[in-house]
Amino acid sequence: MAKPGIKIGTGYDVHKLVTGRKLIIGGVDIKFDRGLDGHSDADVLIHAVCDAILGALGCGDIGEHFPDTDPEFKGISSMILLEKCGALMRKNGYEVVNMDCIVMAQVPKISPHKKKIQENIARGLNMDSSLVNIKATTTEKLGFIGKEEGIAAQCSLLIKDVRSKNII
Ligand code: CDP
Ligand code: ZN
What residues line ligand 1, using a CB cutoff of 6 Å? Predict the structure, then answer.
């Protein structure tokens, strides 16, 4: 059976909002009175993008590649993890067609940072920033996001086999 020329990936992540931590989303250090808790810099959006890439490749998830029990990844910038996922993707002969991301946060406002986030992700993956879309939504004060207990992010993307002429 012919291998598909394009493959879909999806990623979802949640981190807890706590005091005394920086808030890093999409590689941007956002000025806020709380931050996301985690072993790395807890960049919830970049983790979702990494998971979407790994998923599209059929390579499991971020926890398998970068275990939170490994001291090597303590406090690490998630942008480095994104670059590693991008390198794995290219090694497998794929590139991203496009991606669409959602940051789910009651606070703070993400829109002022969208352009920088878009550029960071595009740079991390050596792709054109016009192919990276960033959205944000509150959950209308409902649930753990709405109660400001945590922030979630989701990413959907397509990757294509750079040598294949097959669509599917
Ligand atoms: O229902 P809808 O998503 O339109 O409303 P909302 O959640 O109140 O979001 C309104 C606008 O605020 C959206 O266009 C988002 O891009 C933006 N937003 C934001 O910049 N930062 C957030 N944490 C949540 C929403
Ligand atoms: Zn995470």
Answer: 105, 109-111, 135-138
